[in-house]
Amino acid sequence: MTRYRSRTRAARLALSILAAPLMLSPLLTSPAHAIIVYDPTNYAQNVLQAARALEQINNQITSLQNQATMLINQARNLASLPFSSLQQLQQSVQRTQQLLTQAQNIAYSVQDIDKAFQTKYGNISLSTSDQQLVADARSRWQNTVGGLQDSMRVQAGVVGNIDTNRTQMSALVGQSQGATGALQATQAGNQLLALQAQQLADLTAVVAANGRAQALQSAEQATAAEQGREQRRRFLTPGSGYQAGNARMFQSGN
C-alpha cells in the first residue's frame, strides 16, 4: 500500500514537470513590448529649442507690426490736406485790387501822376487866364475829394474782407489741429501764412489809399497857396483891370 502511494506521487510529479513547459510556452511565444526610456537632458534641450523658436516667431511678428505701423505713418505723412482756402483768398485780394484800380481822376500810375502835377499842380504859369486858374482849382478840389472817397471805399472793402478772413482762419486752424500727418499740418500752416499775406495786402492797400488822399490834399493846399500869391500879384499890379470904388457899410436914414 505504501509502495502504491509512492508510485502515485511520482506520477503526479512527472506530469507536473511535463506540463510546466506547456504552461510557459504562451509567455515565451508572445511578442515583446517596447520599453520607454526617459532622458531628462534630451527633454530639456527640446524645450529650450521650442522656446527659442517661439521667441523668433514673436520677434518676427513684432517686426512686421512695426513695419506696418511705419507704413501707416508714412501714408499719413504723405496724405494731402483735403481743404484749400486759395480761391477765397484770391477773391479777397481781387476785390481790394479792383477798388484800387477804380481810383478817380488820378490813377495809381507814375505817368498819370506826373502828367497831373505838370498841368494842375506845382508852379502857376503867369500866362494862365483867370478862368483857367479857377477851373484848375476846381479840378484839384475834385481830385482831393475823389481821393478821400477812394480811401474810404478801400477801407470799407478791407473791413468787408474781415468776416471772410475770420471764417477761413477758423477752418484752417481746425484743419491744422486735425491733421493726420506732417504734410497736412504743413499745408495747413502754409495756407495760414497765405491768409496773413492777404491781410497784409489789405493793410498795404489801406495805407496806400490813405497816403494818396493825404498827398492829394497836401498838393491841393500847396498849389492853392501858389495860386493865391499869383492872384494877389495880379490884383496889386497896375492896369490889371481892377478899379477902386466907394463902398458903404451902412446907409444913413437921411
Determine the number of helices (DSSP H or I, runs of at least 4 residues).
Answer: 6
**How helical, in percent, are the residues?**
over 70%
Radius of gyration: 57 Å
Multimeric organization: single chain
* Unreliable parts: 20-28
Task: Please describe the biggest sheet, giving its number of strands, its sense, and whether it closes into a barrel.
Answer: none
Order of helices and strands: HHHHHH
Apparent shape: rod-shaped
Task: Quote the beta fraction.
Answer: under 5%
- The SS-based structural class is mainly alpha
Provide structural commentary.
With 254 residues, this protein is an all-alpha fold. The chain has 6 helices and no strands. It has helices spanning 2-29, 40-78, 86-101, 110-119, 130-177, 182-236. The longest helix has 55 residues, at 182-236. The chain is rod-shaped, with a radius of gyration of 57 Å. The relative contact order is 0.10. Residues 20-28 have low confidence and may be disordered.
Which features does this protein show?
254 residues; mainly alpha; rod-shaped
Question: Which SSEs are present, and which pair or pack?
Answer:
Layout: H1 2-29, H2 40-78, H3 86-101, H4 110-119, H5 130-177, H6 182-236
Helix pairs in contact: 3-5, 3-6, 5-6
Task: Please give a quick description of this structure.
The chain has 254 residues and is mainly alpha-helical.
